[in-house]
Amino acid sequence: MKKTIYTVLCFLICWTTACKKLDVPPINIIQDKDVLSNAGGVQAYMARLYAQLPIEDFRYSPERGLNFFWIISPFPAVTGEALSRDQRGAMQENVNESPWADCYRLVRDVNYFLENIDQYSSNFSEAQVNSWKGEARFIRGATYFALVKRYGGVPLVDKVLQYPTSDLAGLNMPRASEEATYDFIAADLDYAYQNMSETNQAGRANKYAAAGFKSRVMLFAGSIAKYNNITLIDGGARICGIPSSKAVTYFKAAYDAAKLLDGKYSLYKKTWAAGDKEAQYQNFVNLFFDASSPEYVFVKQYHYPESVHGYDAYNVPRQLMGANGYSAEVNPTLDYVELFDGLPKNSDGTLKTTTAGKYDLYTNTMDLFANAEPRLRATVILPGDQFKGQSIEIRRGIYTGSSAGGISPLLPAGSTANYPTTNIVQSSNANQTPYKLSDGTTMNPAGLSGIFTGDGTCAISGFSIRKWLVPDKPTSEVLENRSDQTWIEMRYAEVLLNYAEAAWELNSLGQSGTYLSDAMNAINQIRERAGATPLTGAGDLLTVDTIRKERRKELGFENKIWWDMRRWRTADKEQNATLYRVLMPFYSANDKKYFFDARTDERNVRYTFDVRWYYEQIPNGEIQKSQKLVQNPGY
Question: How many CB atoms lie within 10 A of CB 82?
Answer without folding.
Answer: 28
